[in-house]
Specification:
With about 675 residues, this protein is α+β, with helices and mostly antiparallel strands. The protein folds into 3 domains: about 220 residues, Beta-Lactamase; about 110 residues, 2-Layer Sandwich (Beta-Lactamase), CATH 3.30.450; about 180 residues, Histidine kinase-like ATPase, C-terminal domain (Heat Shock Protein 90, 2-Layer Sandwich), CATH 3.30.565. It is built from 19 helices and 18 strands. The strands form 4 sheets. It has a 6-stranded antiparallel β-sheet with strand order 7-6-11-10-9-8. A 5-stranded antiparallel β-sheet has the order 2-1-5-4-3, with helices on both faces. Helix 11 packs antiparallel against helix 12 and helix 12 packs across helix 19.
Length: about 675
């Protein structure tokens, strides 16, 4: 039970005047009237005092609960960005910039990196300073008001971070003149300090949230300056007069400025209610509401506490006028009740009955109070048990989530095996041809050697070596495709992934006479030859093996859809996304019957398929969509109502520019080997 509720029951206070009245001797009517008036006044004052204390205690409890929430919200907002300095210290470009501050290319790269981190973390600004306090790079480098080139060596957060490793500070920005919370951390390498990285956090959303509420909340710093408040007129004002030294320190830091800055709110201490609660008065010019004519001040119940981990003080102010109004109503009710009770005392026969009724009412109220306390205790225990059960459910949910993720990995691998199974017949045919040729060529080579025709035997052996290499490429591609590995995002050449996927379905393309049209930069318009062009024009962040699995699934679905069609054309287009240049679109289109509107809404549902029974489980598109989501992209079916066939768009994030430059140096050995294999295939077919 709260200490503010430890107040004597009011029926006991009302019973005392009744006992006194019953013991009065027989006196004159005037004396009796004066005595009864005195008793009514004492009872009314007692009721007023009790009601005021009860209402004030309730206000303090509500304010303390609100402060718990507000303090937790404020601390959560301050600690939400603690990970940023450690994250930024992992970037080698920042340390390199601090070693070589004049490198323009390095400055530009760090500026863009800080801008990306600021956008992702929703911080106000992130900037890097050298040991002299000069800003070398900032997330707002391209803004009209930029921190680049500004010197902040006078700021407390820079000084503290330089000496102790970290620094914290709240104040107005000297460049942007916007308030914010600054968190600075020292960057070190090889045992010595290189510079400071600073994160600026805007607390305006938190202040806006307080303003929308019906309570009055403010946060003051160690000097008593209010810097966060739900009352705009109180911002940057002081709770008490500032000394000249404190005012000079604030001016040196350039911490606060604006109309009325560092002026007093006019908060006057009136009475202490508890260690963390008191009644203060504010004069009408600084009050929250307009004061009635002639009213000199407004009294508030002020509940305050220190924000843990800081030297700040968070305060809640509640107007005490409603509590006093309720107390006056209680006093009026008590006065009326006592008046009736005193009249009853004139009738001796009714006196004992009235007292007995009041005693019975008191006992009933005490029993009700005890029962209420027991119910509250039971309810508290039930809530504790529910909280424990909720934690157990959260742990079980995390375990289930891990199981689902593992199941998805197994489904992805099963999808690969299903695709390999679908291609097994074609691959068998693809391997049988060189095997038969190997038998014939080896027999001929033996005969040539027996007859002394060495040159013909050597030619046959070279052809045999080419056929063996070709068979090795086919099996190596299948082994790589079936490999099970985790998702690790890395730069992947889109054109190379398309060529690898087409290589896996190449036999079906030739067998079913499907024309492949690739609208890919640096690639031929009609790709009768499946050798990819280099250097690749587009690089995306993905896992090469999983990207090829998605493409193979889309190609296989397109080939299935075009079975029996007069025109069989598989079109593949690669281009930058029309809405965001940071993404690349891969569009796969076929000339099949298209996708009906009734089917389109269920395309990516597991186990949904339009193929005949036995032709598939309906997991291909569902697994592909899950893979693309893990890669940070999207997979959707485009609306092709105006044209024939189906069209799917695979959208992936573009790789950074440096990774694209490294990837485009030369074609891979797999591409060169595949080109050699295709050339050997053409000679063998001839």
């Amino acid at each position: 039970m709260s200490p503010f509720r430890q107040i004597a029951p009011w029926p006991r206070a009302l019973r005392r005047p009744a006992r006194i009245a019953s013991r009065l001797p027989s006196v004159s009517q005037t004396t009796k009237a004066l005595a009864f008036c005195a008793l009514v006044a004492v009872g009314a004052w007692t009721a007023y005092h009790y009601a005021e204390r009860a209402e004030t205690s309730a206000i303090i409890e509500r304010a303390a609960h609100r402060l718990d929430i507000d303090e937790s919200t404020l601390k959560g907002e301050l600690t939400r960005y603690d990970y940023l300095p450690a994250l930024l210290s992992l970037n080698p470009d920042i340390a390199e910039l601090l070693r070589h501050p004049a490198d323009a290319a390095l400055i530009a790269r760090v500026n863009r990196y800080l801008e990306d981190v600021t956008t992702d973390s929703q911080a106000a600004a992130i900037y890097v300073l050298d040991l002299n306090g000069t800003t070398l790079a900032a997330s707002n480098w391209d803004r009209p008001i930029s921190f680049v080139g500004q010197n902040f060596s006078y700021r407390p957060y820079f000084i503290d971070a330089l000496h102790s490793g970290t620094g914290r500070f709240y104040g107005l920005g000297s460049t942007s003149h916007l308030p914010g919370y600054f968190y600075a951390a020292r960057i070190e390498a090889d045992g010595r300090a290189l510079g400071i990285v600073t994160t600026k956090i805007s607390l305006d959303p938190l202040e806006a949230l307080w303003k929308r509420g019906d309570e009055t909340v403010l946060v003051a710093d160690a000097n008593g300056v209010v810097f966060l408040t739900s009352v705009p007129g109180w911002k940057y004002r002081t709770l008490h007069p500032l000394s000249a030294a404190a005012r000079a320190r604030i001016d040196t830091k350039r911490q606060y400025e604006g109309p009325g800055a560092l002026e007093e709110i006019g908060l006057v201490h009136r009475r202490r209610l508890a260690p963390n609660a008191e009644i203060d008065a504010v004069s009408p010019p600084n009050s929250l509401v307009a004061s009635p004519a002639g009213k000199r001040r407004t009294d508030y119940v002020v509940v305050s506490r220190t924000v843990s981990g800081t030297d700040w003080q968070i305060m809640s102010l509640t107007d005490i006028a409603p509590a006093r109004k309720s107390a006056r109503y209680a006093a009026l009710v008590a006065a009326l009740g006592l008046s009736l009770a005193t009249i009853g005392t004139l009738y001796v026969l009714q006196r004992r009955k009235v007292i007995a009724q009041r005693l019975s009412m008191r006992e009933t109220l005490e029993r009700m109070n005890d029962e209420l306390e027991r119910k509250v205790a039971r309810r508290t225990g039930a809530l504790a048990r529910a909280n424990k059960s909720l934690r157990s459910e959260i742990i079980e949910h995390k375990r289930t989530e891990a199981t689902l993720k593992a199941t998805l990995e197994e489904l992805v691998q099963a999808g690969k095996m299903a695709l390999i199974g679908q291609m097994s017949a074609g691959i068998t045919h693809e391997l049988n041809q060189p095997l038969a040729a190997l038998r014939t060529l080896s027999d001929n080579a033996l005969l040539f050697l027996q007859r002394g025709r060495r040159e013909e035997a050597e030619d046959n052996l070279r052809v045999i070596a080419g056929l063996i290499e070709r068979m090795g490429k086919i099996t190596a591609q299948l082994r790589r495709f079936s490999h099970k590995a985790g998702t690790e995002l890395a730069p992947v050449a889109v054109e190379r992934a398309i060529a690898n996927a087409l290589f896996l379905v190449e036999l079906r393309l030739r067998k079913e006479d499907v024309e492949v049209v690739r609208n890919v930069p640096d690639a031929t318009a009609h790709a009768e030859s499946l050798v990819p062009c280099a250097p690749c024009a587009h690089l995306v962040l993905a896992d090469a093996n999983r990207l090829e699995q998605v493409l193979v699934n889309l190609f296989a679905n397109a080939l299935d859809a075009m079975l029996g069609c007069a025109v069989r054309r598989l079109s593949i287009a690669v281009h930058a996304d029309t809405t965001d240049d940071a993404f690349v679109d891969i569009v796969v289109t076929d000339t099949g019957p298209g996708i009906p509107d009734a089917v389109r809404a269920r395309l990516f549902e597991p186990f949904f398929t339009t193929k005949p029974p036995g032709a598939g489980l309906g997991l291909g598109l569902a697994i592909s969509a899950g893979i693309v989501r893990e890669l940070g992209g999207t997979l959707k079916a485009d609306d092709t109502a105006a044209t024939n066939g189906a069209s799917f768009t695979l959208r992936l994030r573009r790789a950074p520019a440096q990774d694209r430059a490294d990837e485009a140096i030369a074609p891979t050995t797999l591409e060169r080997n595949r080109a050699t294999t295709n050339h050997a295939d053409e000679e063998h077919d001839d």
